Recover the amino acids of this structure.
């Protein structure tokens, strides 16, 4: 009799996610999988009746990692509803902040959330520091690659492990036969894991320079909150602009000399993962990072569109205002709709009505024939009314750039395929998804210099405007308005839909990237991207399903901010066991 594996919670992600995988009769392969978000957000309810200009500060708290992107989507939704343009300098600063989020987020994900699925930390204790140095120098010119450097890291790791306090490295499947890196590659990766901790602290300063703080930098409808005055001590001055340039250089150096070489070196040992973990074969991007503003999609660095069935020759348009094109379904979600659970709703008409009908915790298994997740099931619908589950995120964006003929993307993708000696089909996989994240970090990090140079040129030309005061007073607003603020967050297409009536928020719906990817089945029984990607996976050991973690982490799940559940006395109500 086949068994069902339960991994709850999936660790090294943001928020609470449960994966249940039904195995084949011989318990060696995954026949079907089920993705369940086990926490509820409810920000949409909190925002009703509030001033739209304040929405970003609430929406930004949806997540403790993606703080910037929710704020951007929120202010863009209000600006879209009120036809509110922003100055060119504000757009450039927003682009720089979004790009910094990408570079920071992707590097942190690779080393601290995903790399440990491929890197055996304990094995690094068997490494020869001299051989590790030779390996590091063979793939990169990064200066921190001497035998002494790796010897010090090995001593630090040895003290850490022998102390019996694995800490951040606890609960790993160390020694699992699915790990293939030699000890020297493991030691190199652990060293860069630690290096990235310091790096990320330094590069996060860019958000503080433009937004006052990090996390949760400041924003505002109509522009950005930082005034430009080269002679002021408090405004964006020459010293702070020079610091931004230093941070951009620091970001690009680490990506070029550490992140990209490490990705290629690790991927070379796991080429078989180039044919596992695709799933849907359908991909969607909203588009983002405009050169000339959100009203000119042709100027976007990241283009918009839908790719179906791997067909890169045909790009379908995305219209987020079209009620027949974007809909959220709840047939397998713990919500109710006034129109019934089988009908989809466009986010302008979206409803957030909780109805938990699942088992009372703790429980062994979900009833997957009924509702089994706090996430909804967003879907893209073509002109003929056919409903598609789609994947969003780095792989979708790189495929879209490649399909559109973006030269740098084509060069990077072809270089990667040639270096790893894998076919183009390897893009559509767990390995391809992870590599795509690395490649787009390079693309976006390089483009940061262009935006910075444009900002400096504007300032030197006398343009220091960063805010549009028009339409700031609600008395000038239309009685009713609605708009959508969208962007490409690091994890994929993100959009906030807002309905404004009499100067207040009447309805607000946020559809996040991990809802597209991690949502449950829809009324037609179509799986979401996570569920589809796990199907067919072979497992070395069902009791240590590292293969599940590899594919799920390749999406970089971001379910919502982690919470602790307590009663009115502050006592714990539930304990979650890590499998």
């Amino acid at each position: 009799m086949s068994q069902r594996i339960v991994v709850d919670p999936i660790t090294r992600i943001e928020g609470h996610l449960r994966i249940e995988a039904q195995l084949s009769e011989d318990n060696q392969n995954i026949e079907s999988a089920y993705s369940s978000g086990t926490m509820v957000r409810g920000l949409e309810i909190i925002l009703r009746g509030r001033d739209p200009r304040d929405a970003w500060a609430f929406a930004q708290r949806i997540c403790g990692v993606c703080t910037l992107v929710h704020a951007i989507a929120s202010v863009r939704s209000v600006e879209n509803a009120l036809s509110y343009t922003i100055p060119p300098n504000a757009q450039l600063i927003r682009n720089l902040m979004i790009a910094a989020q990408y570079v920071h987020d992707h590097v942190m994900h690779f080393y601290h959330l995903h790399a440990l699925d491929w890197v055996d930390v304990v094995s690094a204790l068997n490494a020869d520091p001299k051989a590790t140095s030779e390996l590091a120098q063979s793939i990169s010119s990064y200066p921190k690659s001497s035998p002494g450097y790796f010897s010090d890291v090995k001593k630090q790791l040895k003290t850490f492990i022998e102390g019996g306090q694995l800490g951040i490295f606890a609960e790993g499947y160390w020694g699992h036969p699915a790990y293939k890196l030699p000890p020297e590659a493991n030691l190199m990766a652990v060293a860069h894991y630690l290096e990235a901790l310091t790096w990320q602290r330094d590069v996060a300063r860019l958000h503080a320079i433009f937004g006052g703080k990090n996390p949760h930098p400041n924003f505002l409808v109509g522009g950005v909150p930082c005034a430009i005055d080269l002679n002021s001590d408090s405004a964006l001055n020459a010293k702070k602009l020079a610091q931004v340039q230093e941070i951009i250089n620091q970001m690009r150096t680490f990506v070029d000399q550490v992140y990209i070489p490490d990705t290629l070196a690790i991927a070379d040992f796991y080429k078989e993962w180039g044919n596992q973990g695709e799933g849907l074969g359908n991909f969607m991007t909203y588009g983002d990072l405009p050169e000339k503003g959100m009203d000119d999609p042709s100027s976007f660095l990241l283009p918009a569109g839908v790719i179906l069935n791997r067909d890169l020759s045909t790009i379908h348009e995305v219209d987020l205002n079209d009620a027949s094109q974007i809909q959220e379904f709840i047939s397998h979600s713990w919500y109710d709709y006034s129109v019934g659970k089988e009908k989809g709703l466009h986010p302008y008409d979206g409803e957030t009505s909780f109805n938990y009908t699942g088992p009372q915790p703790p429980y062994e298994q979900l009833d997957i024939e009924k509702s089994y997740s706090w996430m909804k099931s967003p879907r893209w619908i073509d002109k003929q009314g056919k409903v598609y589950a789609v994947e969003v995120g780095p792989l979708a964006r790189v495929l879209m750039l490649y399909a559109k003929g973006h030269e740098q993307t084509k060069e990077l993708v072809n270089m990667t395929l040639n270096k790893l000696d894998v076919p183009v089909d390897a893009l559509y996989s767990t390995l391809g998804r992870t590599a795509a994240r690395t490649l787009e970090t390079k693309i976006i990090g390089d483009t940061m210099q262009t935006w910075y140079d444009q900002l400096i040129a504007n300032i030197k030309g006398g343009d220091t405007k960063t805010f549009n005061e028009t339409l700031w007073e609600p008395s000038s607003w239309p009685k009713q308005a609605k708009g959508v603020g969208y962007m490409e967050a690091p994890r994929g297409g993100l959009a906030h839909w807002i309905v404004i009536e009499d100067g207040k928020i009447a309805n607000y719906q946020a559809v996040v990237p991990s809802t597209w990817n991690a949502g449950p089945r829809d009324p037609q029984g179509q799986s979401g991207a996570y569920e589809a990607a796990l199907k067919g996976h072979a497992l070395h050991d069902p009791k240590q399903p590292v293969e599940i973690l590899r594919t799920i982490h390749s999406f970089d799940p971001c379910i919502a901010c982690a919470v602790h559940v307590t009663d009115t006395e502050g006592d714990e109500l539930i304990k979650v066991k890590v499998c």
In short: The longest strand covers residues 480-489. The chain has 15 helices and 13 strands. The mean pLDDT is 93.
